[in-house]
Fold this protein.
Amino acid sequence: MCAAPRERQPFLGLLPWCERRAVAQALRAETVGGLVLLAAAIVALIWANSPGGSTYETVRDTHFGIAALGLDLSVGHWASDGLLTVFFLVAGMELKRELVVGELRTPATAALPVVAAMCGMLVPAALYVATASLRGGSLTGWAVPMATDIAFALAVLAVLSTSLPSALRAFLLTLAVVDDLGAILIIAVFFTSDLNILALAGAVAGLVLFYALQRLRVHGWWWYVPLGVVIWALMYNGGVHATVAGVAMGLILRTRPDDGRQGRKPEKSSPGDHTAHLLRPFSAGVAVPLFALFAAGVSVSVTSLEGVFTRPEPLGVVIGLVVGKVVGIFAGTYLAARFTRARLNPDLAWADVFAMAVLAGIGFTVALLIGELAFPTPAQADQVKAAVLVGSMIAAALAAILVKRRDRIYRRLSEEEDRDDDGDGIPDVYQRDQAGTT
């Protein structure tokens, strides 16, 4: 377990060694998955705008499944309601780990990223509402610009060949994890329809059984996979977006491994960590890119691009992502640091926090999902999707400029963090500062 944080630990300072290993493991798969995600989005745009664009819609709208169980869905719906459940399952496990053993386990360390993430959700929503209201547009898309896509953001960094210090990467990851929780709560509360109480009761009963199996230390995928599928199907038929089932199961999985006390068999890793290790590559490399493939294929033309900046709903999304995220995250972080008397790492500057706030304006995956839910009409949905793509691209370009300006400093800090002159597998900086060791 990580050592308890010291009083007034510098904000964006050196992470505890065990926390840094956990963050590195999580981001490694996300970085590779982000590159695949970027490729999938490009393929979708080319396919949808090619002479064979009609085949894109044909494949996306092809239905298959078991109609008697209410599961006769299109390929696009299987991607958003089925595959993204795996993404949110991993997100739930990451949030649980952060709450139990990570940066969010104590109020002192959680204050800054949580306040920053909440401001980074509220300000974009407020700017969307203001833009749509002033121009007579629909307010139903207020939640679209609230989310941060960690995989896409990391893909941008990978393309730039930039090595961020681990603290900046952890800050970005924590923002995205809290954003994911906010997004799933919004989906569960505001985007439900035709509730089937009986099916929902069955889903809740399944989650209770899932919890009991965890508490009783029952092992074996043959228990949890069939049960998880049943919970997912009942949640979908209950009228609540099926991805909520993924987050719920992720939060239930145990995060602390048994240490052999109370007569229990010692565990090398907790069920949550083990499951995340197995599912994260599939989530980042398969589930999210396939969703992007069938969600990002919008028609791109001069007229459609003009509509992004002239129609109130897409314009509100672009302003929310490009301006709202930056203002919300940076202002929230600065004010939280000021009132908690946190000290910014002297090796970094507030310009680095600003760059991360700009990078967090990449809202791709979850923004596309909420856009589909908020605007069921295909024409409106395509306009909002185009706005998400444009806003994310603008944020990525601005972030690239800001990050590159500080790249020399980032590389020096990363090299210092990674230096291991004695070859014992533990960077020397952690052996000079015993408070950071496990």
Summary: The domain at 34-49+67-191+241-413 is CATH 1.20.1530.10 (Na+/H+ antiporter like fold). The CA atoms of residues 64 and 72 lie 5 Å apart. The chain has one domain: 34-49+67-191+241-413.
